[in-house]
């Protein structure tokens, strides 16, 4: 018997095990969970015209023509076997003496499986596809006992294969493991299986690897998706349960105090959503267990004021609140705007300060020693009721007198570990936690990635917002191009402001020109080395000031500037002392200057869909309509162009984030914000398996409530332990 943890060597031998290891398959369990990508119908030929260059494929086809000939070049002999699916053709090329074997084994009319890497070559006027030295396996028409035994099933599994390892070799190894594996206790409780009509685990493995028909494969897939969804949801349910058992200090609202004075001073009415979410949060803060809440709201929905009101409630109750921002620019802005909004309320102990007043401290990584010392002191003594900062807040020596609430702005930039690090700072009980994000995530993703949080949403924007018009501007079109700069001049002429965004800073050493501003974030996505380097802030800014924007007040902003310089530039821009800011993605999130109306994004195709939506959210925040121009040299009908057109066609962040998700692999979605989850999802897709995820979540909550330690569910406990191990292993690898 083979257990699932057993290394593959024992079951399949050293040679095969080594090749499987190259596909990251180490144990019997790994191999069983290496599922076929699809199934070839016995007798049904593969569509050869669909094969893409560079792909490792296994195709079923019929030999049409065999042509061997001597050649003068080495190695002296060339065999070309043409196979067909009835319409398309593929050439199998063999060189040298070894070619006599396939020549003998593949007479015209033979059907078989052929595996190798697809390459294209020029032949006459057309392009032909070929496999050079493919592996092959003939399948005789059923009269051969051998073939009948090996391909007894109607469906032949096609595995994701690789160099030196064919799909049928993998199938052979799987067969051995299937026949000898001891799967242990089924992780899905029997009652759950009955209730959702799920087949047993060993039937499922058999059914997915060696199905008799597609219906059987379907039943197997459904069951195995459940495993993935359920184990994950049980882990999250346990996490929620553990959190619910933690103690936190209740922070009840005060009748009179900072919050009441702040509300009275507020220059606008709260939206209905802001008020409702505010009440949810206020109620959470009164409880003796820590709040763990996610607040979603599209760009410009007005999350800051909701977070600030929660902080004021906590300060009124004698505690402190920390606001964690993903970038220094954003932390500085939050600090500035909170101080401004609070006015005299933020001047405790100073002349003219309010009696309820507090102080607002700022802590960032690159601020000067004096300012930093002051911030640290105010946080530790409790003089600052509100401490705003970047990840510098997470450092060990940052101390609070009584941290009651942590607000994390733009969560998608932070991982769970960081969320946890800040929680550790509270003495006496855990702090309440509010996470805010403008990246609207589909519900199923939220249930998975943020499954341990309660969620609230701001669904409308504050009234009086002006629409943002978005246009894609082809870089090659001179007229459009001139018009873009013209628009900026017009707006500036009316006292309004503009952003020009570039993918790169432009001070990196030659050769190191990946897109993005590495101080702050990952920046744009794929980087094809063959393309010209993305446009850079430090190149574009002088060209604009000497050219089309001559005479306007232009400044640059990027992540590698000194902290004070960033602050100065943003202050001047906010005070309308500058007309145009040429910046990297440092302004992507949160930056709030309502007087800016135009944004020009250079090389827009280098940014992701959600990123563009975020960037665009910087304009149209005030009374005047916003304009966003996406400049690109991506050709029409290209993938890149399609994405830009999508961004231009809608202002709905939810729709765009869905699009973003669809274009990425599932693993990337989870891997980005949550370490370790990647490897646990193979069949489950977050966007399509909503039903399963919802049902699994409900079942998991029920089961954990009844049996928190999983004493009665040893199979499940074992799966969970494996998941946690995997996470830990990946976490360790990263650090
Ligand atoms: P986001 O949700 O993107 O973080 P902000 O909190 O930065 O949005 O709010 C965007 C702008 O809207 C800010 O200038 C803020 O002062 C303003 N705002 C917030 N709530 C309201 C409201 N109820 N009515 C009018 N303006 C509001
Ligand atoms: Mg914000």
UniProtKB/TrEMBL annotation:
A Pfam family reported for this protein in Swiss-Prot or TrEMBL: RecG_wedge
Entry GO MF terms: 3'-5' DNA helicase activity; ATP binding; ATP hydrolysis activity; DNA binding
Helicase ATP-binding domain residues: 284-458
Highest taxon above the source species: Bacteria
Acidic residues biased stretches: 515-528
Reaction catalysed by this enzyme: ATP + H2O = ADP + phosphate + H(+); Couples ATP hydrolysis with the unwinding of duplex DNA by translocating in the 3'-5' direction
Chain positions covered by the region annotation Disordered: 506-533
E.C. designation(s): 5.6.2.4
Class of enzymatic activity (EC top level): isomerase
SUPFAM superfamilies: Nucleic acid-binding proteins, P-loop containing nucleoside triphosphate hydrolases
Transmembrane region(s): none
Domain Helicase C-terminal: 494-662
Keywords: ATP-binding, DNA damage, DNA recombination, DNA repair, DNA-binding, Helicase, Hydrolase, Isomerase, Nucleotide-binding
Biological processes per GO annotation: DNA recombination; DNA repair
Family: Belongs to the helicase family. RecG subfamily.
Function: Plays a critical role in recombination and DNA repair. Helps process Holliday junction intermediates to mature products by catalyzing branch migration. Has replication fork regression activity, unwinds stalled or blocked replication forks to make a HJ that can be resolved. Has a DNA unwinding activity characteristic of a DNA helicase with 3'-5' polarity.
Protein's recorded name: ATP-dependent DNA helicase RecG
């Amino acid at each position: 018997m083979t257990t699932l943890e057993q290394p593959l060597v024992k079951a399949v031998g050293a040679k095969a095990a080594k090749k499987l290891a190259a596909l990251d398959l180490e144990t019997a369990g790994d191999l069983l969970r290496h599922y076929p990508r699809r199934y070839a119908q016995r007798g049904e030929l593969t569509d050869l015209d669909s094969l893409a260059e560079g792909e490792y494929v296994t195709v079923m086809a019929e030999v049409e023509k065999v042509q061997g000939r001597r050649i003068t070049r080495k190695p002296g002999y060339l065999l070309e076997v043409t196979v067909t699916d009835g319409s398309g053709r593929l050439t199998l090329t063999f060189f040298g003496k070894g070619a006599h074997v396939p020549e003998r084994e593949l007479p015209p009319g033979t059907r078989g499986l052929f595996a190798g890497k697809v390459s294209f070559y020029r032949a006459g006027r057309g392009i032909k596809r070929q496999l050079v030295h493919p592996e092959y396996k003939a399948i005789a028409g059923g009269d051969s006992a051998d073939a009948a035994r090996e391909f007894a099933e109607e469906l032949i599994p096609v595995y994701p294969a690789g160099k030196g390892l064919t799909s049928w070799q993998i199938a052979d190894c799987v067969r051995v493991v299937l026949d000898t594996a001891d799967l242990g206790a089924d992780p899905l409780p029997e009652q759950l299986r009955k209730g959702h009509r799920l087949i047993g685990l060993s039937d499922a493995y058999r059914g997915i690897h060696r199905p008799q028909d597609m219906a059987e494969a379907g039943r197997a897939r459904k069951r195995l998706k459940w495993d993935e969804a359920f184990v994950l949801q049980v882990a999250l349910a346990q996490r929620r349960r553990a959190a619910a058992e933690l103690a936190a200090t209740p922070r009840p609202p005060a009748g009179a105090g900072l919050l009441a004075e702040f509300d009275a001073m507020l220059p606008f009415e709260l939206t209905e959503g802001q008020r409702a979410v505010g009440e949810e949060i206020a109620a959470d803060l009164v409880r003796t267990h820590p709040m763990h809440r996610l607040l979603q709201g599209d760009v410009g929905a007005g999350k800051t004021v909701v977070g600030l009101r929660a902080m004021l409630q906590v300060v009124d109750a004698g505690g402190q609140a920390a606001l964690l921002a993903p970038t220094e620019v954003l932390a500085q802005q939050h600090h500035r705007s909170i101080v401004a909004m609070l006015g005299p309320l933020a001047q405790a102990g100073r002349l003219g300060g309010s009696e309820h007043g507090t102080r607002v401290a700022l802590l960032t990584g690159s601020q000067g020693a004096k300012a930093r010392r002051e911030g640290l002191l105010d946080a530790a003594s409790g003089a600052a009721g509100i401490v705003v900062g970047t990840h510098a807040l997470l450092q060990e020596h940052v101390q609070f007198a009584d941290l009651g609430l942590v607000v994390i702005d733009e969560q998608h930039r932070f991982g769970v570990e960081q969320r946890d690090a800040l929680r550790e700072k509270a003495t006496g009980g855990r702090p309440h936690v509010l996470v805010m994000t403008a990246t609207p995530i589909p519900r199923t993703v939220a249930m998975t990635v943020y499954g341990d949080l309660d969620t609230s949403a701001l669904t409308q924007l504050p009234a009086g917002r002006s629409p943002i018009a978005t246009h894609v501007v082809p870089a090659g079109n001179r007229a459009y191009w001139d018009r873009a700069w013209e628009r900026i001049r017009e707006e500036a002429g009316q006292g309004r402001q503009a952003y020009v965004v570039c993918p790169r800073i432009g001070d990196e050493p030659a050769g190191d020109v990946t897109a993005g501003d590495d101080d702050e974030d990952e920046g744009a996505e794929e980087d094809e080395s063959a393309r010209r380097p993305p446009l850079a802030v430090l190149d574009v800014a002088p060209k604009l000031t000497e050219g089309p924007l001559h005479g306007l007040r232009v400044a640059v902003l990027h992540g590698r500037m000194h902290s004070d310089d960033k602050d100065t530039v943003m202050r001047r821009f906010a005070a309308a002392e500058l007309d145009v800011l040429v910046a990297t993605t440092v302004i992507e999130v949160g930056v709030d200057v309502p007087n800016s109306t135009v944004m020009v994004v250079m090389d827009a195709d280098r940014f992701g869909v959600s990123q563009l939506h975020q960037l665009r959210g910087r304009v149209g925040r005030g009374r005047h309509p916003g304009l966003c121009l996406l400049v690109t040299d991506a050709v029409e009908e290209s993938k890149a162009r399609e994405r830009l057109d999508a961004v231009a066609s809608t202002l709905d962040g939810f729709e765009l984030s869905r699009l973003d998700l669809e274009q990425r692999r599932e693993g990337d979605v989870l891997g980005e914000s949550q370490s370790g989850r990647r490897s646990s999802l193979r069949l489950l897709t977050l966007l399509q398996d909503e039903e399963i995820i919802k049902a699994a979540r409900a079942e998991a909550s029920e089961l954990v409530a009844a049996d928190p330690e999983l004493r009665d569910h040893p199979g499940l406990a074992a799966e969970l332990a494996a998941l946690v191990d995997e996470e830990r292993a990946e976490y360790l690898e990263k650090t």
